[in-house]
Amino acid sequence: MSKALNQYYEQIRQKLTQLEQQADTIEHVAEIMTETALAGRNLFVFGASHAGILAEEMSYRAGGLAIVNPLFTPALMLNVRPLTLTSAVENVEGLGRVLIEQSPLKEGDTLLIHSVSGRNAITIDVALAALACGAHVIAITSLATAARVSSRHSSGRLLADIAEITIDNQCEYGDAAVSLPGLAQKVAPLSTIMGATIANSLVLRICELMQEKQRTPPILASANIDGNQKINQDILDAYRSQIHYL
């Protein structure tokens, strides 16, 4: 194995070990999300551009909760052209507020927001608008990055300043993890790995908490295995009032 690959894998292992130190925070968030779901309220997830990969990770997938709803806007998806448009759009102030106003999110719901820096306007607007609706706002962000950047929103606030609870993804400033000789920029980011681990840790714990309350978690099965289509359709039918992506 190359030295660089070894460094990358070692950093992943270290960051995952550090994540275990936030077990109490993850537990608290899982409890809030479980209470939201069992009360018939809604679960939402949002991220802009690459941070939106986490929204895809949590939505309508095998082994995932059917009742997690992504908040998407086409201009922030990675199939937009030019792709650089996403960087401009996520700093159009007011757009995030409109996104929330046009969504089904309401009082008592829970919104999980993923942003490594937590500085861009759309993220701040989404968080502020969701709070104004009376929803729980949970952040997944890099506190190391937040300590070194300023807000790009007129409020001067970062996501970590607004969220009810913040889960630190443990990523360093700049996200990328490995330095190569002669290359100015580091290579190989960690935020997707860490964000997905946090997201699926929450899903797993929510399932356990639901079972403790004698409720069967609405976990989707792989559509690539024969017979699972009916399982999934039954879940979608049963939880239609909490599913807003159909």
Describe the structure.
Helix 3 links the parallel strand 1 (about 45) and strand 2. This protein has helices spanning about 5-20, 25-40, 55-60, 85-90, 95-100, 120-135, 145, 160, 190-210, 230-240, and strands at about 45, 70, 110-115, 135-140, 165-170, 175-180, 185-190. With about 250 residues, it is of the alpha/beta class. It has a 5-stranded parallel β-sheet with strand order 2-1-3-4-5, with helices on both faces. It has a two-stranded antiparallel ribbon with strand order 6-7. The chain is globular, with a radius of gyration of 18 Å.
Radius of gyration computed on alpha carbons: 18 Å
The tally of helices reads 10
Please count the beta strands (DSSP E, at least 2 residues each): 7
Which term fits the overall shape? Answer: globular
Element-by-element helix/strand order: HHEHEHHEHEHHEEEHH
* Quaternary state of the chains: single chain
The structure class reads alpha/beta
Poorly predicted ranges:
none
